[in-house]
Amino acid sequence: MIYSSAVIKEFDTYTGNYENVYPYFINSCGYIKFHSKNVSIRRARVDYYLIYLVNGAGYYKINGKLQTAEGGSIVIYQPREVQDYYYLGSDNTELYWIHFTGNSVAQLLESLELTNGNIFHVGIKTELIQLFENIISEIHIKNPRFHTACIGYFIKLLSVISRELYARKESVKPLKKSDIGQCIIKMQMEYQNDHPVSYYANIANLSVSRFIRKFKDTMNISPIKYIEKIRMDKSKELLTDTDLTIYEISEIVGYNDPFYFSKVFKRNTGLSPTAFRKLRQG
To answer: What domains sit in the chain, N to C, each tagged with a CATH number?
Structure first.
């Protein structure tokens, strides 16, 4: 068995550590690879326990029923929940694990929809593996503010798990930075500029026609309409929260002609910019 652990605070591996002072607190994190021996555990810790299987399988008795989790599965145990499970050496199981606690963990897990069960399947994700490795490394090296860095990685870890589960549930394909997702980032950053569609197609390394089709399949809206939506959303913010003139706002969001801006705004909202401002500001 290959075992690597990084501990911040843990008095007993069978009972764990409970913290009520901090919103989030990591007790320990690590990696295990089983070779030949079978291993079984039965305990009830006072902290949370998250397992990420990256190879092989684990066998978990939950609510009286034995369940098998394979590579790509996440297993989450609540505080004081009985942890009754085993691993077979012949499965060559590999997994990452983390014990955590804190007075805001329950709300975080609930907001990410990670409380409606014990076992979740997210697949093998290099991003998740890297986040575990980052936490382990931070704990080992213990640079200044290492625990704050660990919490950042930890929250991202849970967020990536939640996002993957949502994508699988809703049949939504996560956007890749190298594809349409990168173009969306560009659009959000450069919406004021009148880039032609070909500019974004080149970023995605696609023909214009293929880019438009793929963008619409992903976002249910054309690239031009998406940029227009960004501009309208920004316009609404500026009309509500500032005293800038309509002319100034139209320039900020990318329209040189304030009359054309007003026409587009009314087409999208049903109100002129002036009427919208009066409605929002009272």
So the answer is: 2-169 (2.60.120.280), 180-281 (1.10.10.60)
Residue pair 112/162 in contact by the 8 Å Cβ criterion: yes
From the CA atom positions of the chain, what is the Rg in Å?
25
DSSP string, 94-111: EEEEEEEE-TTHHHHHHH
- The pTM for the full model equals 0.65
Spell out the per-residue pLDDT of the chain, length 282, in tens.
566 778 888 767 788 888 889 999 999 999 998 888 899 999 999 999 999 999 999 999 998 899 999 999 999 999 999 999 999 999 999 999 999 999 999 999 999 999 988 999 999 988 899 999 999 999 999 999 999 999 999 999 999 999 999 888 876 665 554 578 888 888 988 899 999 999 999 988 899 999 999 898 888 899 999 999 999 999 998 998 888 999 999 999 999 999 999 999 999 999 999 999 988 876
Separation of CA 280 from chain center? 33
12 burial type by CB count under 10 A (0-12 exposed, 13-18 middle, 19+ buried): exposed
Alpha-carbon distance values, 145 to 55, 136, 148 (Å): 32, 14, 5
The CA–CA distances, whole Å, from 257 to 4, 23, 192, 262 equal: 63, 50, 13, 9
CB 71 within 8 A of CB 108: no
Cα angle 238-185-252, degrees, rounded to a multiple of 5: 25
